[in-house]
Amino acid sequence: MLVGFVIFYLVLNLAVGWFASTKVRTTTDFVLAGRTLSFGLATMVTFATWFGSETMLGAPREFVHGGLYAVIEEPFGAALGLFIVGAIYARKLYPLPVLTFSDFFRIRFGGVSEKISALVMIPSYFGWISAQLVALGLTLHLLLPISTEIGIVIGALLVMTYTLMGGMWSISITDFLHNIILIVGLLILAYLLMDKIPDWGVFIDQQPKGFFRFTPLKNTWVDWLQYIGAWMVIGLGSIPQQDIFQRVMSAKSSPIAAKASIAAGTMYLTIAMLPLLIGLMGVRLYPSLLADDTLLIPHLVMRFMPYGIQILFLGALLSALLSTTSGAILAPASVLGENLWKPLLKHPSDKKVLGIIRLSVVFVTMACIWMAVSRQNIFELVGEASAFSLVSLFIPLNAGLWWKKASAMGSHLSMLLGLFVWAYFHFVQPSEIPAIWFGLLASVLGLLIGTYGFPRPTKVAE
């Protein structure tokens, strides 16, 4: 029955993708769902942006071992990013005639900035997508008599197929379905475990000292830099990313885009607490789970929960992974097709551009399948992907929006210096100070040097 449910659920996603394909006529339909999403759909699709492997598998493990302080980046930083996008950026970006963030850099700073931003943005997604595919493969391996590698391939091809058919329309409709199953599954599982805790006062007191602290234990400047850096990686780094931009821009109006992002942040701040609580209750009730905590919650469900709960939870887990993966694949594929391949053609029709973006979906998926099969450490994959946009795109994006003097050369240098300095301190010369601080400082310096050294008039996004 469990195998039958999994197969039915996967086929259902394909059916929804086929239905969504009937709504796709133009590139805007495919990339931004025609910019017609209602508040409910826009909220659901934005909420699903990051609710994937890290939230369901990574964060509970970190929380169990390190307490609240260990999960600042995810989910708290992720929720912060959604709040900031809704409060500050959505209304500013929505009126612009753009499909991608790189389109914005072209309009504001010219074609070179467009290409640099695209070349920075596209590879930053590969580790993130690969982590979702590894988690999908592990889940399918847990459910079906197949290897993790085969599970990765099956999961990737499924997501690729329904994304190819309907683009953001497929993602929006499936995300709505996925999120309902996800929320119901997590709530029921949390309720069942809470019912097994006889005394919550004793349960809280049993946690190690400082387990629920929300600020650094030591009051040193290095600890505070690490703490603030954890908030910034996703909290600010997500702002110039194509996946969140794409989902916000799919709303049918500027006010809906802003409100949906804030509502999604509120949902994230509450729903994402459930996997943390479930993981903590699980290891206290069943300490043997710590023997293999990479799949902490799936093992908890498969070993100690009734059959019906297994079906419900695994549906929730598959929902989270499919939602995050589909949007993550479409984001770099849109940038690749729109900003790198399209300019190579002379006056391509919209139909041809749509075909190019669909081809880009295939290319991105295949590259990430190879990466996921080669390296199956979820947390290593996510960690390498998380800071790219923060150190290279955040500063020039804000300069383009808010500083009229910012020049094209300032944008170029900001992107390149930020990325290379971050890479040096992250890979070559790591220190106690997070590398993102060095990258951000270099990005600001690059912007100032380029703007004052090469002050050229540019078009400001009003």
Task: Please tag this protein with its features.
2 domains; mainly alpha; 462 residues; 0% strand; Sodium/glucose cotransporter
Describe this structure in words.
The chain is mostly helical and 462 residues long. It folds into two domains: 2-379, Sodium/glucose cotransporter, CATH 1.20.1730.10; 387-462, no CATH class. The protein contains 21 helices and no strands. The protein has helices at 2-21, 27-32, 39-47, 53-66, 72-93, 101-109, 111-143, 148-194, 200-205, 221-235, 242-249, 254-271, 273-285, 296-304, 307-341, 350-374, 378-385, 388-392, 394-402, 408-428, 435-453. Helix 5 (72-93) packs across helix 10 (221-235) and helix 8 (148-194) packs across helix 13 (273-285). The longest helix has 47 residues, at 148-194. The protein is globular, with a radius of gyration of 22 Å. The chain starts with a helix and ends in a 9-residue tail after the last helix.
Strand content: under 5%
| Secondary-structure arrangement, i.e. CATH architecture of the largest domain | Up-down Bundle
Number of strands: 0
Share in helix? over 70%
Helix tally equals 21
SSE order, one letter for each helix or strand: HHHHHHHHHHHHHHHHHHHHH
CATH superfamily of the largest domain: Sodium/glucose cotransporter
* CATH fold title of the largest domain: Sodium/glucose cotransporter
- Main beta sheet strand tally, sense and closure: none
Name of the level-1 CATH class of the largest domain:
Mainly Alpha
Low-confidence stretches: none
| Computed Rg | 22 Å
For the record, the count of structural domains works out to: 2
Average predicted confidence as pLDDT: 91
Classify the secondary structure makeup into a structural class: mainly alpha
Shape: globular
